[in-house]
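Q: I have 357 residues here and want to know how they pack in 3D. Can you give me a structure?
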Amino acid sequence: MTSIAPASRPRIAAIDIARGVAIVAMVIYHFAWDLAFLGFVDFDPTQSLPWVIFQKSIVGTFIFLTGVSLALGHGQTIRWRPFWRRFAIILGAALLITVGTYAFNPSTFVYFGVLHAIALFSLMGLAFLSAPLVLILALAVILIGLQLFIQSPLFGEKLWSWIGLWDAPPPTEDLVPVFPWFGVALLGIAATRWAINTRVRSGKVADVSGSVARPENDMDPSEASSLTDRLAQFKGTSAPSRAMSKVGRWSLVIYVLHQPILIGTLMGIASLTGISETRRAENFLSSCQASCTQSAPDAAYCTAYCACTLNSIEADNLWPLLESPQRTPDQDIALSDLTNQCAAQVLDEMLLVPKAE
């Protein structure tokens, strides 16, 4: 694997631009998520199909480009020093994300997100830089499709969730498991190796591996260039292209810093306007009213019951407990006691009203 040195290649502006577009799209998605989380808007991007597709396409772009960069940067030999330097930087940034999200919300912190996946997939991808393309493509199909046939609650546990194949994902803000996402990285490796080994001239294409037979005078190898070399000729001289290219080169720094800046700014605005508390209370009352009317058709009872419950939650500052995705049995009992007390109180008040009249 390390016996053949790769030819030096210029930096490909198109890849930087693609990475730049992806990071801008991720900033947009996180901004929408922050607005919903803090109550500025009344929708959840994690439950909206267009936003879910948008988010998955962003992740897929980053993971695919991981495979592309790996194949371009190392070819048929592994340049270990640059590889380990890049690996350490990405892993360090991933751990920083873990620490930061744990401090923000321990119950849904990011323990295997995009950066964690990029670090692991880069390491795993080294084994496929010289593997047959048919093998790479077959494995990619298996990795992407296997979750449709195999699912187990075991992989829903945090300890094993980085593998994928769960029946229900664990609570976390970002999870990019091996199944199916390493398959996307393999597609990036396969596509790049094919482009490197494919030479073009005057609109004609030939595979330098010799798998496609052509007359010897059909193409002069000295006059042909690979698809990646042709792609490298695109310099992206327009203002938007130059901007996206520069953003793409700084994508890691932007990825690490943009969310703390966004959510910190929005939290400050929310604190000054009180919109988060207002929206949270409105959402709770709406959800409580809808749930209550399914079991108790008396609208007056449901209105009083939900108002009592909301007052108790706010008085005892139980929002973190109520919104936690995972609670202990004792915590569930405490919330159940609260709701039972409100139910009993409202019923007593409704029974006493006729007697007072």
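Q: Anything worth noting?
A: Residues 1-8, 202-223 have pLDDT under 50 and may be disordered. The beta strands are 198-201, 204-207, 225-226.
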